[in-house]
Every structure is written in structure tokens, then in C-alpha cells.
Predict the structure.
Amino acid sequence: MEIDPFIFRLSIFILSIFIGYYVVWSVTPSLHTPLMSVTNAISSVIIVGAIIAALAGSSESIFNTSSIFGFIAIILAAINIFGGFLVTQRMLQMYKKKKDKKK
Amino acid sequence: MISANLAAIFYLVSGILFILALRGLSSPDTSRQGNYFGIAGMIIAIVVTFLSIGNFSTSLVYVIIFLIIGGAIGAFIAFKIPMTAMPELVAGFHSLVGLAAVFVAIAAFLNPAAFNLGNVGDIKLASLIEMSIGVAVGAITFSGSIIAFLKLRGIMSGAPITFNGQHFLNLVLGIGIFVLIFYLCKTQSTNIFWTVIIISFLVGVLLIIPIGGADMPVVISMLNSYSGWAAAGIGFTLENTALIITGALVGSSGAILSYIMCKAMNRSFVSVILGGFGADNSTDDKKEKKDQKPVKSGNAEDAAFLMKNASSVIIVPGYGMAVAQAQHALREMVDKLKKNDIKVTYAIHPVAGRMPGHMNVLLAEANVPYDEVFELEDINNDFANSDVAFVIGANDVTNPVAKTDPKSPIFGMPVLDVEKCKSVLFVKRSLSPGYAGIDNELFYKDNTLMLFADAKKMTEDIVKNLD
């Protein structure tokens, strides 16, 4: 009997939860805010779904109900991707060690 | 056009890059590199999606235009936002992820063929279940985050909003969602799909309104977690590995943060979610005591004198510092102290502020080197050997009652042992109790000097007096 591909995806999912568990526990508490903003940015990889939906419109009608939802989702996710990564970068840029400021 | 198998491998690569992005955050040195991994993962995912669809018609132009519009808005926000507004920004971003998940699910429901999920009215059962879960969690994340955003922004009062039968209503609506999803799978009815979304929006609002201001660290982490599970749900629908991995990572990350925050308040997750903390413990005996006890209050000159003669000072920042934007003035004060060879360190309680790590970011913004900033368990023993504790905008997290009075609502919560210092300077606007609604014993101790003023103004005055 063949294994349903769903089971493979489920395995990836469960293993990723475990990876997430160990990786996140090793994040230093002082970086918890950047952690939240970067997780925010990466969860916007949902944009792939939005792109598929947006490109599904036929050549005569680029905008049908489904693709319009896709286009709006692209904007939302893009705000998050750019906003999330850039604000994380901005925050991380501020974390400095003692030696940096003895100038 | 690239094959589905190749695309899947690339999605796996971007998933791994996302893992490395989180891994980088284990130390500030590697964190910037981690962020680049994240960006690379995102670029790969987006490019591969374009290539695997291979539809380079006019639609693509629109996709890119919309991408640029969103990106410009996001970049604008990222550069403009002040660091003190970080909690509401994160809440706002969560709401966008939630809404994007809802919209992608709607698009998939209306045009399942585009996603290989079957046809309208005949969507594969598994996909329909995954989609409904994704849409429901996404909708809850969206409306819940909006409420959290409004509360953090101060547009909505931070006080818990409770009413009779609230929990019962939530329970009924929660069960309702499951029943509706069940019927949705049976009938494939569009109306039921919309109803699920609307009820989920409602649940999100109802879940967050009873939760008060200082519980926000838990709420934000929880919504972070939800946004991950929503993404994972959609990832299953789209059969996309990058999305499944990311959803699982973000989901567990948010869950761990919620756990850490709850632990730091010694409260169970359930009691935070049920909300209404601080509303029910207005016990009268505590109020009576407050009226009689004498308080020593001082001015900036006294504070400056005390600190000048100290050899070590520990700073305890809290939400009040963020509100007053006092972090830069504080740094100036510390610089002056250091010039006089006084050892200065910072002690941060995990729930200080409105989100995990809130204080650390503000101090980093004020150019405080991160190796002078310590977490609760690393510094708590140092209070006994220090001369002055400078509490600026923190309250409940320093209350010794958490260690001594089993009747107190915050009993058992880990607190900073500020009272062990030779003297305590407490910057606060008034004697009003903190979020937990209980009096802080520390105010009335002999070695405590209260500095009644706005945190920023007081710190600036102290700086002047240090010369």
C-alpha cells in the first residue's frame, strides 16, 4: 500500500516543530523582540500562495474574484516581508558590545 | 518553468534558511547574519514560485507592481517606526499575516483548480479541512491582533473588558466553528465558508478584549504562535514545504515565548487567556494600609548625591521608561556615573514592558552595550552587594510581596530582589499601584527614596545634578 503524501508533509511539519522548539530555546532573551519580528517576516512566505492565486487569472480577465484576493494578499504579505526583515535589521544593528563605544 | 520536484527542493532550501535565521538569534553577534539567511530564504521562495507557475503574462506585471507597493509601505514603516512603538508594530504585522492567510484561503476556495485542489464545489476533503483550519486560525489572528494593536497603541483602553457569560460565549462560538467546518466538508457550501470566517473574526476579538495591558507580552507571543499555525494550515493546503516548515517554526516559537512569559509572571496560560487579572483583587485591607504608611520622597539632587557616593548601581527599567521615552536620558546618566568609576549594570525582568525583550531593544537603541544588560536570574544575587538600585518605570516586578505574602495575587512570581540593595531609588509618577492592583511594599521601606516625577524629566534632572 502506498503512503499518502499527506503523511510526508505531516512528518515534515512535526519534525519542524521539534526543530523550532530547540532553536527557539537557544535564542538569547535579549533578542526576543527581534525574534518576534523575524518570525513575522518569515511567516509571510504565505505570499507564495498569494502569488499562485494572483497568477491564476486567465489572460482575458486578470482580475477575477479569486485573483483579487490573491493580489490583496500579496500587498499584505509584502508589507510584512519588507517591514519585518528591515525592522529586524534595524534592531539588530543597535545591539553593540562595550568595545564599540569607547571611541 | 521548473518541475514540481525541483520547486519542492528549493522550498526545502528556503525552509532551512529560515531555520538558520532563527538559529542566528542565539547571540547578537550572529544575529545579523541570521537575518540575511532569512531574506535569502524569502527571495528563493518567491522566485521559485514565479518559475514554477511559468505564467509570464500581464498578470505577472501586476504581481510585481503589487509586490513593490507592499514592499514600499513595509520599508517605510520599518524605517519610520520609533523603537518604543515596537509592540504595536509587531501586533500590527501579526494581523497582516492573519489576513493574508485568510485571503489566500478564500482565493483557494473560490478557484481550487489553480491550486490543484479539485474543482469548485468538489474540493478534496483533506484540502478543505486544512483550508478551513487555516482560515479560522488566520481570522482569529487577524482580529485578535487588531485588538492587541489598539490596546497597545492606547486607542483602546488597556483595561480588561469582561462581561457575564463571556467564556461561555467563546466556548459556544469555538464549538460552532468546528460544527460549521464539519458541514462545510459535507456540503462545500460557500455560505458556510464565509460564516466560518466571520465567526472566527468575532472569536479573535472576544479572546483579546478581556486581557489587560501588562499581560500583553503573553498575548503578543500567543498571536505570534497563531500566525504560524495559520501559515502551516495554508501550507498543507498548498502542499508547500517552505510554508509548512515556517508555520511550524513560528508556531512553536510563539508558544515557547508565551510559556516563558507566563512563567515569569507565575501565571498559568489559561488564566491569562481567561483574562480580567487585577479586576478582582481590590481587597480593602491593602487599600487601608496605603493611607497610613509614611513614604520618603526625594528630589533629583538627593538621588544624584546617593548615586555619586555609590560604588555600584543597578538600573531596573520597566514599561514606564518606555512610555516616558527615558532610555536616552538614562544612558546619559549612566555615562556620567561611569566617569566617576561607578559600576553600572541593568537588570531586566522577562515581563518588563509590553513584549518579550522590549527593554533590551530600547536600551540597545540608546547605545547601551548588551553585555551590561542582565536577565533576572543572572543578576538577582548582585542586588545584595550593590549600593543603589535605580528603579525606573518598573513596579510589580520588584514587589517583595511576591516572596512573602502567599495571599498576594502575584505570590510566587519571580521578582528582582531590589530591596536587598543598600538604597533604592524609585522613579514613579505617583504612589498608585501597578498593573496587578496591589501596593508595593518597597515604597515604604526605610532605604527607599521615592522620586515622584516623569521618568525622563527626573533622569534629566539627575544628570544635571551629577555635574
User: Anything to note?
Assistant: The longest helix of chain B spans residues 125-153.
